[in-house]
Amino acid sequence: MLRTRTVMSGQTSHKSEAANANSLLRFYYTSRPFLFIMCSGNELFYASLYLLYFNEGPLIAGMGLWRAMAYSLLPVGILKSVLALMQGYYAALNLGAIDVHERKEDATKKH
After folding, report:
1. 36-79: pLDDT as tens digits
2. Which of 17, 34, 90, 108 holds its CA 20 to 30 A away from the CA of 65?
3. Parent domain of 53
4. Domain count within the chain
5. For residue 63, what is the enclosing H or E element?
6. Rounded distance, CA 99 to CA 35, Å?
7. How many Cα atoms occupy the beta-carbon half-sphere of 109 within 13 Å?
8. Which residues are 59's β-sheet partners?
9. How far apart are CA 11 and CA 29, in angstroms?
10. pLDDT the model gives residue 74
11. CB–CB of 48/69 below 8 Å?
């Protein structure tokens, strides 16, 4: 959906500052360290959940490593999910605005 909305609105990338009116999404895409932390932390979160399914992992301070990773990376996983929902929300709004604009143009051409 993001790619479609970006192309339809004439933008080159959904990561550009012009494409993101929301300040959190703009920071997410313009700060490479933040983007790296979010993407790698999210992947490690889900990897730790997968590994936790099989066993606890090596014990560190009385807790399994995979469980400790899952608990510590849970905020990253939640924030990454919120960012994905925000991206979809803003893409849907922009796509709707483009559709309304195109329908208005078509209506004026018919009259």
Report:
1. 999 999 999 999 999 999 999 999 999 999 999 999 999 999 99
2. 34
3. 22-110
4. 1
5. strand 63-64
6. 31
7. 6
8. 64
9. 15
10. 98
11. yes
